[in-house]
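This protein record is not my work; I was only asked to verify it. The record follows directly below this note.
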Amino acid sequence: MTTSRPGERDQRPGERGDLLDPRCPTRHLLDRIGTKWTAMAVKVLAEEAPGELRFAELRRRIPGISQKMLSVTLQSLVRDGLVARRVEPTVPPAVHYRLTELGLSLEGPLSALRVWAETHMPEIDRNNQLADESTPN
């Protein structure tokens, strides 16, 4: 069974995608994990791996995140299978989060991206400053 339109081809599992193609796996992944909050949550949970963190501790370790945004981010990560959620039946319930094996495998690429950013953001910032200075008001 084919799901592609005429002139298009199906994406096979493990096949390298075309970033310009809406079906590209990279595009789908970036849609899911491309936020700063997701990257921060994965980093914080990776630092604790294989252990768990409670919601309040995660919020404390991620500066600037609201309770709602952390909740939405964690729900998305749990849905994608990158984070596991465990609820202790206490009053109030104690909710714990940890990275799954799949989530742990994401930490390496995100770490490489952080290294690239730390190396190159000063140059990008300088280029932006030069562009701003050369743009007439």
About this structure: Residues 39 and 114 are 9 Å apart (CA to CA). Confidence is low (pLDDT under 50) at residues 1-9. The two ends are 57 Å apart (CA to CA).
